[in-house]
Design brief:
Layout lengths: L4 E4 L3 H9 L4 E4 L5 H6 L7 E4 L4 H4 L2 E4 L2 E5 L4 H6 L1 H6 L1 H8 L4 H6 L2 H5 L52 H7 L3 E5 L5 E5 H4 L18 E8 L5 E7 L10 E10 L2 E10 L6 E2 L1 H7 L6 H11 L10 H18 L3 H10 L3
Parallel strand pairs: 1-3, 2-3
Antiparallel strand pairs: 4-5, 5-8, 6-7, 6-8, 9-10, 10-11, 11-12
Helix pairs in contact: 6-9, 11-12, 12-13, 13-14
The chain binds flavin-adenine dinucleotide and iron/sulfur cluster (SF4).
């Protein structure tokens, strides 16, 4: 029989202290990811530190001059339904509403969503070699396995798993950050854009957080953007992870895009910002030709095999479509969907 300790944290400092003392402790929030992976035998924590009792202090959605602050224990459903988030940080609500199912969104938290693990089938099969689950054992996907839904950007010879979440992609586009408290009790801020890691030589390290780090809140800076939107392409229209997703935030002045951020999900090993494409578009008036040019720049350096070639084409179209729609060119966006457009 496997022994599993269960502890309830009294407050955030107590939770991060419990995480940092002794090996094998893991935070339990909504449990929709953690319990799944334990059942599959993918993870085997020795102690679960439950933090849902801290909702009174860490689930509020607050607004001030600096923007919005979302407690890490707010549920996905609460944030997606908030009228001010829907109206002003639209990409966040759109990303959350296209995530998982209503039941999961009612239970799952913002902190847990940001730290979800990959859905690579070999990672989730405890019997398959997987460098992310057990470093140094090999990569079943790259060694003759199925790769069709995995990443084409930011990959390494050790892992090609794609980042599965939606929220972090939208938060990155909106220049959001998280507040983290460490086991030493010190607080720090981490840009969501910098939270996740490419696999490199260490696919087992998904993020820059360490043992004992607890996410307290996510912060959305006061709106610099005129519009933001999130486009998700998946196998079926609900309850499926992204094959490709694109979050776009842009600032328009007299019809010209004076600033923008484009972030990709589904295609890459982490939410991936496309700086070269942003540079190409900034200061110009958007049209089909420019959107196509930006999409091509986003996919430069993509690693595709025969199985994943469709993802590059799907990505190219999704990026152009997302940009055109966010820029108010809905008709041109439709041309991309129905005729390839360029
Ligand atoms: C069938 C299914 C479909 C799904 N589809 C989607 C989808 O389409 N899009 C999408 O984005 N997600 C999807 N998900 C993932 C789901 O959104 C996550 O499982 C959920 O958001 C995790 O939140 P949680 O509160 O349940 O976290 P938990 O399962 O409790 O925790 C998840 C991880 O985060 C850590 N953690 C939790 N809170 C904190 C914190 N505050 N600080 C530090 N560490 C913390 C835990 O230790 C654990 O490692 C799906 C999940 C399922 C089961
Ligand atoms: S792609 Fe990554 S997660 Fe999937 S089997 Fe290979 S190492 Fe594991």
């Amino acid at each position: 029989m496997t022994h599993l300790g269960f502890e309830r944290a009294a407050d955030a400092a107590d939770a991060s202290h419990r995480l940092g003392t002794g090996p094998g402790a893991q935070i339990l929030a909504g449990g929709t990811g953690t319990v799944d992976l334990m059942r599959l035998g993918v993870t085997a924590p020795e102690r679960l530190v439950e933090i849902l009792d801290l909702r009174a202090e860490h689930a509020a959605i607050l607004f001030g001059r600096a923007g919005a602050s979302i407690g890490a224990l707010a549920t996905m459903a609460e944030v997606a339904a908030h009228p001010a988030i829907r109206a002003r940080w639209t990409a966040v609500a759109e990303a959350l509403n296209q995530s998982a199912s209503p039941q999961i969104r009612n239970a799952a938290t913002i902190g847990g969503n940001l730290l979800q693990r990959t859905r690579c089938a070999y990672f989730r099969d405890a019997a398959s070699p997987c460098n992310k689950r057990r470093p140094g054992t090999g990569c079943s996907a790259l060694e003759g396995g199925l790769t069709w839904d995995l990443a084409i950007l930011g990959t390494s010879p050790h892992c090609i798993a794609n980042y599965p979440g939606d929220l972090a992609v939208a938060l990155s586009a909106l220049d959001a950050s998280i507040t983290v408290v460490g086991a030493d009790g010190n607080w720090r801020s981490v840009a969501v854009e910098d939270l996740h890691r490419e696999p490199g030589e260490r696919p087992d390290l998904d993020t820059v957080l360490g043992a004992g780090d607890l996410i307290l809140a996510a912060h959305l800076p006061e709106l610099h953007w005129s519009r933001s939107s999130y486009l998700k392409v998946r196998d079926r229209e609900s309850y499926a992870f992204a094959l490709v997703s694109v979050a776009v935030a842009l600032r328009l002045e007299e019809g010209r895009i004076v600033d923008l951020r484009i972030v990709l999900g589904g295609l890459a090993t982490k939410p991936l910002r496309c700086r070269a494409a942003e540079e190409a578009v900034r200061g110009r008036s958007l049209d089909l030709h420019l959107a196509a040019q930006a999409a091509a720049l986003c996919l430069e350096g993509a690693q595709v095999d025969a199985e994943r070639a469709f993802k590059a084409e799907q990505g190219r179209r999704a990026i152009a479509r997302a940009l055109l729609a966010a820029g108010g060119h809905e008709k041109a966006a439709c041309r991309v969907v129905f005729r390839g457009g360029f």
